[in-house]
Write a structure and sequence with these properties.
The chain is of the alpha/beta class. The chain has seven helices and ten strands. Helix content is 36%, strand content 23%. The strands form three sheets. The chain has a six-stranded mixed β-sheet, with helices on both faces. A two-stranded antiparallel sheet has the order 5-8. Strands 6-7 form a two-stranded antiparallel sheet. The chain is globular, with a radius of gyration of 17 Å.
């Protein structure tokens, strides 16, 4: 089969499939990896043969740059995605389904470009907070009792790059439902099990978006 015909078939199937963009951050703070990137890549691979396309979007852990990278990922797709899910690292207890982002930046160190904020607004004059447009509570209700124990709902994304990304994307991309989920950190004890459980729950969550 000619190369152009194979490309056409692949593009046609992609255009017909349900599409989700899942972003993850690069390595930060001298760690060996970042679980948001690890998990997002696994999700992209796991859905490669199904009727749902999960596109991985790699982001730098840098204020403002990460949101521009995610916008570029969305624009570069052959069709507008149905949903956008941002992933980032938090604690070791499980998944945190975030519900709002704050118009505030404050960190205890710096981002991967060495930028440090001590308490500044992201966008002067804009609202103090913004809600995630993709509501996860209906999807949460479809999960098993065991899965639910691994999830908490949060109104506090922190004030670092994850929150910066969410505040900008939730304000600027209003025609595609967006949410943010924190996953366990790369250096957590029992990392492999935490990654496997996170992937399992997020796979079900993405599938339920289209049920």
């Amino acid at each position: 089969m000619k190369t152009w015909l194979i490309s056409l078939i692949l593009l046609s199937s992609e255009l017909l499939a349900n599409t989700v963009v899942v972003s993850g951050f690069d390595v930060f703070d001298n760690n060996r990896g970042n679980n948001s990137e690890v998990i997002a890549k696994i999700l992209s691979k796991n859905f490669s043969s199904k009727n749902i396309n999960v596109h991985f979007c790699g982001l730098r852990t840098v204020y403002f740059k990460s949101s521009e990278q995610l916008k570029d990922c969305v624009i570069s797709l052959p069709k507008k995605p149905d949903y956008i899910i941002g992933l980032g690292e938090a604690n070791c207890k499980g998944l945190k389904f975030e519900t709002i982002a704050k118009n505030w930046m404050k960190d205890i160190s710096q981002d991967n470009d060495g930028i440090h904020y001590e308490g500044e607004v992201i966008r002067p004059g804009d609202s103090q907070s913004v809600e995630m447009s993709l509501k996860l509570k209906p999807l949460y209700k479809l999960l098993s009792r065991r899965d639910k124990k691994f999830i908490t709902f949060s109104k506090d994304q922190g004030t670092f790059v994850c929150n910066n990304l969410s505040y900008i994307i939730a304000n600027d991309i209003t025609d595609i439902p967006y949410t943010f989920i924190h996953v366990p950190r790369y250096n957590c004890r029992g990392r492999d099990k935490l990654v496997k459980r996170s992937v399992d729950i997020l796979t079900k969550t993405i599938q339920n978006l289209f049920n």
